[in-house]
Write a structure and sequence with these properties.
The protein contains two helices and two strands. It has 99 residues and is mainly α.
Length: 99
């Protein structure tokens, strides 16, 4: 019986006298715990790799958008200076963006 101040707890629901492990159980318990830890570490690593790949994709998409915007400004300037017609500038810009 456990007592905390005026409160008494009976620990009859846990019988520690019958909690003995066989040799085989003692042998496999660390192995089982090691596998569980390994799976947890692997799951965390998989999540980190997934997050990293997602960030890389976001960066690539952002860079592609920036490149397209830069090309459009370049061809807009060419069309504005009269070096290319507006339709020709649009066609060339679209061809370079798609390439």
């Amino acid at each position: 019986m456990l007592t905390f101040g005026n409160i008494a707890f009976h620990s009859t629901w846990i019988d520690t006298s019958t909690m003995t492990l066989t040799f085989r159980q003692k042998l496999f318990l660390p192995l089982l715990l090691s596998w569980i830890c390994l799976l947890v570490v692997a799951a965390i690593n998989i999540k980190n790799i997934r997050d990293t790949r997602l960030d890389e994709r976001k960066t690539q998409i952002s860079n592609a958008g920036d490149m397209a915007e830069s090309l459009m400004k370049q061809y807009d300037a060419l069309a504005g200076s009269g070096a290319l017609s507006l339709d020709e500038a649009k066609k060339q810009a679209l061809a370079r963006i798609q390439a």
